[in-house]
């Protein structure tokens, strides 16, 4: 095992093992202060996920007797959000489906608000007011902004007041700096007692923690498949859609997607095509430390929920990634073992601290997937995989995405393993056994 991989892996393992101790410290601090439980909601009016979250926040505050402070922030920098236009385009489409799924409000076909409109909206939210009222104002503003209703926004400004235009940018940047100091990098986040919860997708983890602290309540955010998703996934009875998945061996979320994709293949007979790409840092995209730490923490709790082993890691960056890619393209793709090999390699990387740059470890993981040692050694000597990897990256970009896992099924494309349950619901509709 290389020294660098060992150090990075040990650091991640230590970070993951410290969660219980951190929770205990925050609990002791809160009891000593004898204060009301406080949550911070970091918000941007032009972030679709923030708008969904602010609609639910009053329910959360009421159900668990929380004080939720809304903090408007500036846009993340390019290192935290390397493709802002792609992200917002996806977020707008995704938010419309989530809104329909959870009974919230977000229009289909919305357009990104102009910079001037976002500035005017933030100017209202930078006025100090009681926490409960601020959440209501933010929800009202979001409705006006995302429905492109300039008159409604003007009425909100007149009723609720605003800071001067010159104050907006410095205040948002100062709030974003505070967000970074607290340990995160993007809006649409809830921060409670040292832990982060992204949007409505992670709200259930916060509720779970509050219940563990002895509180009883529920936001009652029930999920049901949306009709709009059904219309763009497509399909006919008895004919199952094909899933195309772009993944990276260094992505913990990609790892979490693989067992779920295998399950969909095995239960529904769905064809799954994997298209590996190089990790972001090997594609020239920097990943800030706060982002890396949040991702591994979030992946751990998702893995625990899904029953997927996770947390004893060895970083595969560099030669290890090259070996994985070569083995995938030069052998697994030929033998029809793409999912099996990818699962074995990623499980080794993310839960067994196997160093895939170390030939004995690589051979063990490959043999577990049905590929023998001579094939492993021959595969890693063949560098022809690089052209296919470049083609996969180009296809990912053409799809409008930059990160992994990204998924395509029918005419629907999305980003993140979080959307696999929605896809499964649609696949089940077209299954004869459903």
Low-confidence stretches: 28-32
Average pLDDT, rounded to a whole number, is: 91
Just name the CATH architecture of the largest domain.
Answer: 3-Layer(aba) Sandwich
Largest sheet: 4 strands, mixed
Whole-angstrom Rg: 23 Å
Number of self-contained structural domains: 2
Name the CATH class of the largest domain: Alpha Beta
Going by CATH, the homologous superfamily of the largest domain would be Glutaredoxin
Question: What report would you give on this structure?
Answer:
The termini are far apart. The radius of gyration is 23 Å and the shape is globular. Helices cover 57% and strands 9% of the residues. The chain is α/β, with parallel strands linked by helices. The strands form 2 sheets. It has a 4-stranded mixed sheet, with helices on both faces.
């Amino acid at each position: 095992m290389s020294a660098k991989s060992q150090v990075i892996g040990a650091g991640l393992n230590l970070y993951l093992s410290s969660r219980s101790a951190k929770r205990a410290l925050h609990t002791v601090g809160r009891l000593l202060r004898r204060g009301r439980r406080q949550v911070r909601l970091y918000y941007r009016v032009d972030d679709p996920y923030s708008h969904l979250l602010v609609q639910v926040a009053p329910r959360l505050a009421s159900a668990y007797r929380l004080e939720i402070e809304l903090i408007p922030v500036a846009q993340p920098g390019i290192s935290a959000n390397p493709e802002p236009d792609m992200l917002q385009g996806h977020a707008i489409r995704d938010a419309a489906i989530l809104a329909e799924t959870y009974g919230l409000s977000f229009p289909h076909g919305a357009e990104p608000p102009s910079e001037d409109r976002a500035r005017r909206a933030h100017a209202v939210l930078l006025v100090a007011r009681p926490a409960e009222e601020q959440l209501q104002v933010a929800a009202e503003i979001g409705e006006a902004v995302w429905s492109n209703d300039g008159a409604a926004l003007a009425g909100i400004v007149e009723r609720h007041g605003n800071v001067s235009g010159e104050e907006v940018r410095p205040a948002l940047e100062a709030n974003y700096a505070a967000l970074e100091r607290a340990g995160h990098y993007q809006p649409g986040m809830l921060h409670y007692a040292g832990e982060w919860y992204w949007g409505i997708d992670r709200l259930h983890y916060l509720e779970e923690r509050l219940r563990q602290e002895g509180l009883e309540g529920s936001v009652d955010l029930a999920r049901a498949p949306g009709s709009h998703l059904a219309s763009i996934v497509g399909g006919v009875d008895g004919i199952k859609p094909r899933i195309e998945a772009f993944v990276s061996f260094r992505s913990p979320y990609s790892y979490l997607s693989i067992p779920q994709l295998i399950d969909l293949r095995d239960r529904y007979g769905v064809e799954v095509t994997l298209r590996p790409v190089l990790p972001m840092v090997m594609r020239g995209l920097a990943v800030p430390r706060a982002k890396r730490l949040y991702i591994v923490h979030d992946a751990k709790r998702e893995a625990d929920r899904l029953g997927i082993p996770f947390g004893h890691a060895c970083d595969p960056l560099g030669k290890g990634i090259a070996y994985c890619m070569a083995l995938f393209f030069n052998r697994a793709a030929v033998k029809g073992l793409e999912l099996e090999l990818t699962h074995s390699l990623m499980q080794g990387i993310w839960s067994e601290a196997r160093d895939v740059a170390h030939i004995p470890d690589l051979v063990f993981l490959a043999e577990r997937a049905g590929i023998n040692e001579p094939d492993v050694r021959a595969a890693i000597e063949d560098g022809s995989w690089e052209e296919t990897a470049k083609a996969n990256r180009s296809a990912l970009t053409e799809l409008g995405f930059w990160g992994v896992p990204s998924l395509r099924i029918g005419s629907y494309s999305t980003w993140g393993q979080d959307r696999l349950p929605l896809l499964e619901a649609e696949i089940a509709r077209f299954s004869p056994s459903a």
